[in-house]
Design brief:
Number of strands: 5
CATH superfamily: HUPs
Bound molecules: [cytidine-5'-phosphate] glycerylphosphoric acid ester
Radius of gyration: 15 Å
Shape: globular
CATH architecture: 3-Layer(aba) Sandwich
């Protein structure tokens, strides 16, 4: 069984998230998604609309996702890869090169992001609409 892992906030779920999850799952048999905790999001300078619990429940409902774990810090990836016997690490290419240190432990792949959509864009578009 080939285990894949990916990390992210996955707030206000959109097709960009679904596209990375579908492609990540297609690279193996079992997909683990590490979702940023609310506290770690604060460290990343992000404030998710949905709580960790809600983002976890939403991700667990997606057919490509086999397991959801919390992402609490920047340092846990090597430990996660070893703990879950991960064969493949996947992220969108906005992270290109940032996690190459994991190549000692598993395959590392950065996939093209889905253009034209982001949680930030959703929030900005809704703000603009609300002001009309
Ligand atoms: N993504 C994408 N296309 C988009 C938006 C996001 O492919 N239009 C991908 C990102 O590249 C990332 C994943 O979806 O691989 C999750 O994106 P975010 O929720 O924005 O996660 P991020 O804040 O990048 O957190 O330790 C890694 C961090 O936790 C990543």
């Amino acid at each position: 069984m080939k285990t894949v892992i990916t990390y992210g906030t996955f707030d206000l779920l959109h097709v960009g998230h679904i596209n990375i999850l579908r492609r990540a799952k297609a690279m193996g048999d079992y997909l683990i998604v590490a979702i940023s905790s609310d506290e770690f999001n604060a460290l990343k300078g992000k404030k998710a609309y949905y709580s960790f619990a809600d983002r976890k429940e939403i991700l667990e409902a997606i057919k490509y996702v086999d397991k959801v774990i919390p992402e609490d810090n920047w340092e846990q990836k090597v430990q996660d890869v070893q703990k879950y016997n991960v064969d493949q690490f996947v992220m969108g290419h906005d992270w290109e090169g940032k996690f190459d240190f994991l190549a000692e432990h598993c395959e590392v792949t950065y996939l093209p992001r889905t253009e034209g959509i982001s949680t930030t864009k959703i929030k900005e578009d809704l703000m603009t609409q609300a002001q009309k």
